[in-house]
Amino acid sequence: MQTWLKVTGIATAITVTTVLTSPLWLPIDTLWQQVADQIKQQTGRDIYVDGAKEFSLIPTLAIELEQVRVTNVVGGTARDMLTVQQLRLEMPWRFLWTRQFELEQFVLSEPVLHLEKNRKGEANWHFSRNESTSKPLDNTTAAATPTDSNAAAQAAAVATAQHVATVVEQQAAARGYDVKLGQFKIENGQISYQDAQAVSHWAVDVIDLSLQMPSLQSAAKAQGQLNYMGKPLQLAVEITSPAAIMADQPATISIDVSNPLVSASLIGQYQVDHPTSKENMPTFAGKWQSHGSSLRAVQGWLQGAELTSYDASTLGKFSIAGDVTATPVRIGINNMQALLDTMELSGNLTLKTGAKPVLLGELKTNLLNLTPYLSASTALPAAKDAAANAAASQDVNAQEAASSNDAATSTTAAKAPADNTAVAPMATGWSTQAFDLSVLSQFDADIKLQSAGVLLYDITLGETQWHVTNKQAKLKAQLKKFSAYEGAGQGSIDINAQQTPYKLQSNVSFTGINAQGLLHDALGVDQLLGKGNVSWQLSSKGNSQAELISNLQGQASTRLTDGAVRGANIAAMVKSVQEALAGNLQGVDFDKDFQKAEQTDFSEFSATFAVTNGVISNKDLSLQSPLLRLTGSGSIDLPQQRLDLLLQPKLVASIEGQGSKKAKKGLNIPVRIDGPWSNIKVRPDVSKAAKKKVKDKVKKKVTNKAKQLLKTGG
């Protein structure tokens, strides 16, 4: 900004002085060439006027130029750094006896400014008096050649202009010189910026601004509007002392911007630090406030998306306030208080600018609900609602009824595919809403986060300490410590979002947790009660919840104590079947539905699981209670949301502690638990021979009863 103010002041002074000190009979092109030569000497850039040039002295000094352009640096992407369709300048004569350049009117019509950095980081807005520029193009108005008769006058004008430029620069630094702006306007302007190092670009157009500056020492105020990414933005800026900024001294700056999507205000102190003798570092420190009704709408606007295409259910209402510090390479906000949707954030954040921004911070938040930001749908998996699957369950039950009578005693657990190829998601209640994690490729991060709780779909964690890093779209979330389901845990979650399908790895362990709550929230299964330890090492890939479930791989284990398996009293069921086989047929039921009121209590429960393509397989299930020993195997098909377990129970004759080898004599009756999660069946898996034995006993008992009735009747 200092450079622009200096160049503007020098160019104006050179132009005015050259006009006043030159003979009035000189051709106007000759006068302008003298101005252009002096501007080039001061800035190192050529300035051309390809259109009309008009100078007048009465009643005020007035200059009007059309099609003005200032050349760019050699090697720049644009031919010219600045073009102006029309420049109008009007100055009262009283500046001759005062030390104040007063511009009654200064208007730039349709200016176009190209700012750029090359691959070496060199900026085209840094001027040098010895800078060489490209030659003017053929369509440039040629400068008039001075004649011998006016050569002396021209030389005098050049000398005077050089002297004025030097005095202006010296007096500006010493605050002995001042500028007053009356009507300063930019009409329909454009600014573009291109950074070859960061491979970034932005542009602003339809700039309409007006500036009021009574003097360099008093406040300068600018207001107006501009158009960015197709959306108008209202702008108001105030600088307490432009002279202070020109002299690298502190000055207060306030900025207010607003449009229908966002409002923001910034006020603080600008100054220039000097880290080294050859380096100037502009810095800003102040207060920041912003708010809006939809962060997603703002995101869509900044990315050039249609505002009707965004999802309004997430990234909605937002606000942020805090203490801001900023330099060209770093922006920080301390003592931050932020609101996004239902989340409240506080702490410190730092953004390192560059080719890829890096976000650093330490934050605290209330409940961190991640579910809405993974997909638009926040609905629970339909498997958790039996009514949602009622129609499908009726079809499944009909098929089961036709085949259940021939069930074999051997284990018939569903087997997963032998390979690890990706499996297409089944038509179940898992969400197929696609994730969008492309934002992870736009920045790197290292953030420590303490949250009062975390909600991921239905999985709910209590107080949690996170360390989240993101490097080249590879996110790693380390759960240093968290409380959950009456217990505690730790673990890590890794997401590779470099390409789709996204890849996920999870390594988590729980201790002392309530198994029923965890399984209900994670899988929609609430049949297992008890407290103990649960751990898993899982991986998957996919673009939705359904795909992740279908492609799940890994292993898991659990060990619980003092709990129960809800839905059936296995000990009573086995005893009932044994009684039936012994001839007591009262209450026999070979096919029972899941009964919430019934359960099988245990003192210890343990199992390990292998997971392949979303199918959880088990071969070592063990359940022990004072009167029951039970082993089992089977599978849980997550994509299809089905269960198939075969249990081998043994009734213990007496209570002798865990591991007793005494069991009730007689036939051991396997128990099968299977069906869709919404309609699980629990039944003894009786062999055909055992069923025939029961039928024979029923037939014999009926025959004997009939004979007794006939004898009595006879």
Description:
The chain is α+β, with helices and mostly antiparallel strands. It folds into two domains: 1-133 and 151-216, no CATH class; 383-696, no CATH class. The chain contains eleven helices and 31 strands. It has a 31-stranded mixed beta sheet that branches. α1 (2-21) packs antiparallel against α2. It is elongated, with a radius of gyration of 41 Å.
- Rg result: 41 Å
Fraction of residues in β-strands: over 45%
Broad shape: elongated
SSE-based structural type? alpha+beta
Helical stretch count? 11
Count of individual beta strands:
31
Main sheet record: 31 strands, mixed
Helix content: 10-25%
What is the domain tally? 2
How far the N terminus sits from the C terminus, by CA atoms, comes to 124 Å
Low-confidence stretches: 1-7, 132-150, 160-175, 376-427, 654-666
Outline the fold blueprint.
Elements: H1 2-21, H2 28-43, E1 47-49, E2 53-56, E3 61-71, E4 80-91, E5 100-117, H3 151-173, E6 178-195, E7 200-213, E8 220-228, E9 231-239, H4 242-246, E10 251-258, E11 262-276, E12 279-292, H5 295-302, E13 318-327, E14 330-340, E15 343-352, E16 358-369, H6 371-374, H7 390-403, E17 444-456, E18 459-461, E19 464-471, E20 474-484, E21 487-496, E22 502-514, H8 515-523, E23 528-542, H9 545-550, E24 553-567, H10 570-581, E25 592-593, E26 595-612, E27 615-625, E28 628-637, E29 642-651, E30 671-676, E31 681-684, H11 688-713
Helix pairs in contact: 1-2, 1-3, 2-3
